[in-house]
Every structure is written in structure tokens, then in C-alpha cells.
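Handout, page 2. Input:
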Amino acid sequence: MSPNQPQPPAPVAPLARPVPQRMALALILLAALISAGAMGLALWRHEHRLGFNDSDVWALVPNASVHSWGFNLSPLLVERDDLTVLPFGPRKDDISALSHPDTIDHRLGEHLPQDGEHIVGVVIGGQARAYPLGLLLMHEVINDTLGGEALCVTAQRWAGTIAAYSRDVGGETLEFGVSGLLYKMDLLVFDRRRDPREQSLWSPLLLQPISGPAAERGLRLQPIDCAVEPWGVWRQLHPETTLMTRQTQFPMEYQPALFFSPTSARPDSAAAKNTSTRRPDLDAADPLVVVIGPRSMRGYPYRDVPAEGALVDQLDGRRFALRRSTTKNSGITLESLVPAAAGTSPLTRAYVRWSHWEAINGPLD
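Output:
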């Protein structure tokens, strides 16, 4: 072609086809769903940073994600498959532990618990304190000081575990938080340290670390006796008791809780089905009092403690009696029939539901 001849026009790209109206609407709907999902997840994490909502039902996340929680799992003293997490969290500290909560003299306070509401009571050095169970379940971990001793009180709704123990461990005073991990559906706490690699995971019920430097050192938690009683009963037993208030830094509405309430056992979950051959007569939600001695512990179902008289047994060579009060929803008292020898620890109590005690193959009476 001669250079003087006109060049043919460049091909014109075909016009883009207009997006059909239905497809445009579908894309808008998809974007809206993604936005709503992100907002819902943000709200979920915000809510659970304040506490745990019992009305929700959760499935378990595959165990492979346990490492993403960022804890030192070396050494690990339990089977890795027994560590589980909940979907989308809660991660470390998403459920906020309380430290040094406000307390009042109940004789001067307002907005007190109802007489039938359960509390967790502790007596140290002649000083008594009550922690409303509903508040404790929302935060799961309370770091406190009573009678000159640093203590931690924990409660977890899934397994129904309630325990108290000293925060003085291995020559230092620890502060515990909620890890977001579960061991056989039960709470695991962690000790706060600047370097996460130095943090360890602990089982409050087993009173031992399950991973991290504390596990490598073979440290143990020293149990502190605790009672689960209706507020009215505890107040009569300890007229000068102090009470943890509902005034926290979290704008929450705390709900009363009953440890013995059958609805609090989450019957919709797989953990609520009793498949035990050891005690097929027990419901998964049945509460147990765990008697803890210097070397071992043993669980006693509430229904085994007679309404009149006592259940007498011995643990680590110490005879004791478990008694039930006639007051509705009252707890189980522990009476040592032989005083502890000088320099030895007294028998103490913790609490758990049958489904979890069976899961960890806890010893029975």
C-alpha cells in the first residue's frame, strides 16, 4: 500500500453489553450480605469482649486453628486433639477477666442479689467474700485479694466448673486471663506476661499448667476452698461478708444465675448427652462437688449426698463428711472429721458438671 493512500480506520471495539438488571441486583445483594456479615462479626466480638452470651449455640472449630491463638504449646501435657476453640473466637482476652473488682459491705449496699441467686463464696483469714455467679460466668476469671492472699476465682458455663486458687505460684504473684481455648470443653486460663512466649496455659479444675514454661517447671496451683450457695444462705452464715458489686468498667446487664438450674447445662449441645457407662443414672448436667486433697481429688454427685445425715468418706487418709442443707438450691458443705496436720493443706472444694468430669475420667466416690 502506497504511503500516500489513506489508512483504513482502526477497528472499533464492540460496546460492552449492559449488565442485566437482575445481575446488578444480585451483586448489590451480595455486597449487602458481606457488609452485614462483617458488621455481625464485629458486634459478636464486641459483645464477647465483655462476656459470654448463653443464648448462643456454638460449634467447634477444627483443632488445626489452635496454634493461631498464639500460645506456647511446648511442652504440651495433654492430647492436642482435646484442645478446641469456638468459631470466630473468642480469642485471648475477648472475654475480659476482672482484676481487683469493687466490693461493698452488703449491709450498706444497694442492688444486692436476690436471696435465691447463687454466689461463689470464699473465706480467707477470717474474711468472707461473695462473687455473684451470674457476673462470674460473664467474665469467667476474677483476680482478687482477700485476707492478704492473692486469689483467682473462675467459672465456666460449658463444663460447669467453679474453682478458686492462689495466684502465688513459683515465687511470684500471677494475674490470669481468659485464653479463648478449651480443654475438653472446659476453661483454660493463661498467666499474663510481657513476652507471650513465657505465658503458660492452665487448667483451673486440674490445678496445673497444660503447656508452656510453667508446665516444663512442673508448677501447681494451690486450691482455695469455695462454696456455691444462695446469697441468702451465705449472708446468714457470714453476716460480715463483703460482696463483689456489679459496677465494673463494662456497661453490661448481668443476669442472676443458678448453678443447679437444668437449663444452664446447654441441653442442645453434644456435651449434654450422657453416654457414660460408669454412672448411666446421672444426667450430663448433674453437678458434682470435687473434694481436693494434697495428692488427689474425687468427685461426688450432688444426688449422692443424702438429704439427711451425711456422706462420709476419706481422701488422702483424711476422713470428711459432705452434708446437704435443707434450704432450696443450697450447696454441699465439707466438714473435715480429722484436723489437718500442721503444715499440711486442708481439704477444699471445687465444682463441675458430670459431662465434663466424665470427659476427663475424673475419679468418683
